[in-house]
Amino acid sequence: MTRTGTVLDRIVERTSADLAERRRRVPEGALRAQAHEQAPPVPLVPALRADRVSVIAEVKRGSPSRGLFAPEADAAAVAMDYLAGGAAALSVLTDEPFFHGSLKDLAVVARLAHASPGPVPVLRKDFLLDPYQIVEARAHGADAVLLIVAVLDRWQLAELLGVTWELGMEALVEVHDESELATAVEAGARVIGINNRDLRTFTVDLTVSERLAPLVPADRVVVAESGIHSVADVERLARAGIDAILVGEALMMAPDRRAIVQALGSVEVVRCRGS
Ligand SMILES: O=P(O)(O)OC[C@@H](O)[C@@H](O)c1c[nH]c2ccccc12
């Protein structure tokens, strides 16, 4: 699998191996105690329902497809810019081997986001395969987690959603095609992320969101993810009925991060999805 599989296969394999090691170092009980010391999670769903497109701004230093594009970025400084630009939520990549993130980044960003006037929810972005990682997210201040349908079977998805909700958090459930979307909707996902990037080939195509968003029931929140760079991109996605966008690279690379968050978040939501 390592030699013939996709990058996604390698990431999942590596994540499982690292997980075993982390579990030995910090037993789940200790992590749960740390999770219970946190202030209650900031709700994600209301943060993403607004008249303008909600921006989930991501702290991201690099990726397997794009390399290391912001290796020196200071997570706290980036988060401050995002908050000043009016980001509705923040996302922090915590995967180390492939995305150069960390749980430390998550904790730093969560502290800032929660201290801002009108606390902003923070999402842990990683390849979550096991309940341990959800508890770990909460213990480091996350209000929400990413669950990727492509790497989970439907029982795992149900279990991870259950653990997320039990801890008072929310899940962004990521899909890339019609069948994954059906799985997410049936599992009861309240926030559905449509990834424009195919995690197997890394091809980015905004028409994926345009095709799938109209199929999402109106009572769920839809987030278009990846490959979003301009106000024109957001306008196009808004016409397809999305509520929010998740943007990483374009924000990290912008000379004025505050201004671009503000600009992308100025587009009006178009309520055109049926039930
Ligand atoms: O940097 P971009 O193209 O704006 O993409 C952000 C985000 O959507 C992307 O980081 C992402 C979406 N789903 C993921 C799953 C794992 C890791 C990363 C991701």
From TrEMBL:
Q: Does the keyword S-adenosyl-L-methionine apply?
A: no
Q: Name one GO molecular function term.
A: indole-3-glycerol-phosphate synthase activity
Q: Does the keyword Cell cycle apply?
A: no
- Which top class of enzyme applies to this chain? lyase
A Gene Ontology biological process noted in the UniProt record is:
L-tryptophan biosynthetic process
Write the record's keywords in alphabetical order, separated by commas: Amino-acid biosynthesis, Aromatic amino acid biosynthesis, Decarboxylase, Lyase, Tryptophan biosynthesis
Pathway(s): Amino-acid biosynthesis; L-tryptophan biosynthesis; L-tryptophan from chorismate: step 4/5
Matches recorded under InterPro entries = Aldolase_TIM (IPR013785), Indole-3-glycerol_P_synth (IPR045186), Indole-3-glycerol_P_synth_dom (IPR013798), RibuloseP-bd_barrel (IPR011060)
| Domain of life of the organism encoding this protein | Bacteria
Catalytic reaction equation(s): 1-(2-carboxyphenylamino)-1-deoxy-D-ribulose 5-phosphate + H(+) = (1S,2R)-1-C-(indol-3-yl)glycerol 3-phosphate + CO2 + H2O
Q: Where is the Indole-3-glycerol phosphate synthase domain?
A: 8-264
Enzyme Commission designation = 4.1.1.48
**Residues in coiled coil:** none
Q: Where are the transmembrane segments?
A: none
> Of which family is this protein a member?
Belongs to the TrpC family.
Protein name per Swiss-Prot or TrEMBL? Indole-3-glycerol phosphate synthase
Organism expressing this protein natively: Thermomicrobium roseum (strain ATCC 27502 / DSM 5159 / P-2)
- The gene behind this protein is trpC
